[in-house]
């Protein structure tokens, strides 16, 4: 990575220069600018702005800076983070700019430099964290949490009335979620059959990792129910059919089996881990 330089104010889009054509190798990196912010620690979630530069001619392939769409999926975790990334990220400071080499053994067939600038850090949540809400209406479904935070649900005699319910169960102290953001969440979802028996149709807890959803691309009940909630919160959603999947059966793409019958009211317990 010799000869690669970056100039500009820390935390702003850098001007990156290098001699072309440049030969790069995977898992090579160089710190181009030292940051001046908080120190990055184990368990932090990072947001980074990035530029991809063609190693052959230096042209810009991609940039997140112009539309302000940072990648906030980076978590500094020794057991799950790519070793090369982990070793270089931990201990750096916010506003540090780092170049990573990506060789041409990739789907694009183009060797490039990925230049990341770490613009923020926050504690990475694995479950909802905040203050338990005490004034929950008694007629709502009851949520019970396992020791690891995985929820179970009891209808508690609840009869849906066709209206969206978005009941905060745990109030997080993070920023409010915006309708245009992507949410990182742990969640479980159920529907009730005609006998009032709950059937779980999906759960990130069962897969062992959280999931990311753009609120502009999910069912209306998720968008309406989660917008304005705060990061760290746990929310019970009761979603009527007209804000869910309506009159269309949802089926397994492999087996064709119906996973959510048409006109189902949906029940979700959602832990909001982050939004970006």
List descriptors.
seven-stranded antiparallel beta sheet, 276 residues, isomerase, PPIase_FKBP_dom, six-stranded antiparallel beta sheet, PPIase_dom_sf, 3 helices, Chitinase A, domain 3, mainly beta, peptidyl-prolyl cis-trans isomerase activity
How would you describe this protein?
With 276 residues, the protein is mainly beta. The protein has 2 domains: 5-123, Chitinase A, domain 3, CATH 3.10.50.40; 131-275, Chitinase A, domain 3 (Roll), CATH 3.10.50.40. It is 7% helix and 39% strand. The chain is built from 3 helices and 19 strands. Strand 13 and strand 14 form a beta hairpin. Residues 180-276 form the PPIase FKBP-type domain. This is Peptidyl-prolyl cis-trans isomerase.
Topology:
Layout: E1 5-7, E2 15-17, E3 29-33, E4 44-54, E5 60-63, E6 71-75, H1 83-89, E7 97-102, E8 112-123, E9 131-132, E10 142-145, E11 151-154, E12 165-171, E13 182-192, E14 198-203, H2 204-207, E15 211-214, H3 220-226, E16 234-239, E17 250-251, E18 258-260, E19 266-275
Radius of gyration over all CA atoms, rounded: 22 Å
The counted number of beta strands is: 19
Apparent shape: elongated
Please outline the major beta sheet.
Answer: 7 strands, antiparallel
How much of the sequence is in beta strands? 35-45%
Distance between the termini: 31 Å
Return the average pLDDT rounded to an integer: 95
Helix content: under 10%
Number of DSSP helical runs: 3
Task: Kindly report the CATH topology of the largest domain.
Answer: Chitinase A, domain 3
Write the H/E string, N to C: EEEEEEHEEEEEEEEHEHEEEE
CATH architecture of the largest domain: Roll
Count structural domains: 2
Low-confidence stretches: none
Helix/strand-derived class?
mainly beta
- What is the CATH C level class of the largest domain, in words? Alpha Beta
Keywords: Isomerase, Rotamase
EC number: 5.2.1.8
Organism: Bifidobacterium thermophilum
Pfam families: FKBP_C
């Amino acid at each position: 990575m010799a000869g690669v330089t970056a100039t500009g104010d820390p935390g702003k889009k850098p001007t990156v220069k290098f001699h072309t054509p440049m030969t790069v190798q995977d898992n090579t990196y160089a710190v181009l600018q030292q940051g001046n912010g908080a120190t990055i620690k184990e368990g932090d979630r990072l947001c980074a702005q990035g530029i991809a530069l063609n190693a052959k001619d230096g042209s810009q392939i991609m940039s997140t800076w112009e539309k302000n769409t940072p990648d906030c999926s980076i978590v500094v975790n020794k057991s799950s983070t790519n070793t090369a990334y982990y070793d270089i990220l931990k201990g750096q400071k916010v506003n540090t700019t780092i170049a990573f080499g990506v060789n041409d053994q990739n789907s694009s067939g183009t060797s490039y430099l990925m230049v990341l600038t770490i613009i923020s850090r926050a504690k990475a949540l694995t479950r909802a964290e905040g203050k338990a809400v005490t004034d929950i209406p008694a007629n709502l479904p009851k949520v019970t949490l396992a020791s690891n935070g995985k929820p179970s649900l009891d209808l508690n005699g609840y009869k849906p009335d066709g209206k969206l319910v978005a009941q905060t169960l745990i109030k997080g102290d993070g920023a409010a979620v915006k309708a245009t953001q992507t949410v990182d969440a742990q969640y479980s979802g159920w529907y009730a059959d005609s006998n009032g028996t709950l059937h779980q149709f999906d759960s990130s807890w069962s897969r062992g990792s959280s999931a990311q959803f753009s609120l502009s691309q999910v069912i209306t009940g998720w968008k309406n129910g989660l917008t304005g909630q705060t990061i760290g919160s746990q929310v019970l959603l009761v979603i009527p059919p007209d804000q869910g999947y309506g009159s269309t059966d949802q089926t397994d793409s492999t087996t064709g089996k119906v996973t959510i019958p048409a006109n189902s009211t949906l029940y979700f317990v959602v832990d909001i881990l982050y939004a970006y």
